[in-house]
Amino acid sequence: MSEFALDDVLETTREELQALGIEEDLFRDVLAVRLLVERLGESENNSWWDSRVFTSLGRDSLAEVTPKTRVKARFDLAMQVGRKVEREATPDDSLSLFYLGPTGEAQLEALLEDIDGESTFSHLEELEAAFTEPGWTASVVDEMSDIETGTQGPIEIGSIDADALQDHDSLRDVALQCFGAYGASTQETLRVPYFSIQA
């Protein structure tokens, strides 16, 4: 995958999310990077988790089971897959790409209840990328601190004050930094980035 392709996939995802009624930039950005990472982590790409949510098989299976809410069901399943893997790898008092604290997640869940429209996210279904070297997010992340590469396990990026969990800009920053740090992950080697929460 070229550097520009990653930009294009994120932009197309943001556009499709906006077409579904997700107007607020924070949630559109967070969902776009979550959906991209979920797809890149699927078993036919980098095998970070055993999932096929963003394949034609995943789409068709959800359409059979949840025909009226298949788009929301797809989002929910993608979030559950990422959150489960991250929660197993990170401390309890932490934020990660798939978990932005109770307030942020409640706001996101409420927003997803109001999704209106249909999308197959075919650009994600068609995405094939297996990363043999770390650094694949460098083209879309403006600034990243040095992240240890080459080992497995979680990456503590930093810490965040508990009061900042109410601030949308802080949550966007956490999500985008976590997305950037996912770039330390390679095929079959997942590095889960997180921020610890300071009371």
Number of helices: 7
Structural class: mainly alpha
Tell me the major beta sheet. 3 strands, mixed
* Beta strand %: 5-15%
Characterize the overall form: globular
The average pLDDT is: 87
- N-C termini distance: 41 Å
Order of helices and strands: HHHHEHHEHE
Residue ranges: pLDDT <50 for 5 or more in a row?
Answer: none
Number of domains: 1
Query: If you compute it from the alpha carbons, what radius of gyration comes out, rounded to the nearest whole angstrom?
Result: 16 Å
Cross-sheet strand order for the largest sheet: 1-3-2
Helicity, in percent?
A: 40-55%
Number of strands: 3
Spell out the key features of this protein.
8% strand, 199 residues, 3 strands, single chain, three-stranded mixed sheet, BrxE, mainly alpha, 7 helices, 48% helix, BrxE family protein
Structural commentary:
This protein is mainly α and 199 residues long. The protein has one domain. 48% of the residues lie in helices and 8% in strands. The protein is built from 7 helices and 3 strands. The chain has helices spanning 3-19, 25-41, 56-65, 70-89, 101-113, 122-125, 168-182; strands at residues 94-96, 155-161, 193-198. Helix 7 links the parallel strand 2 (155-161) and strand 3.
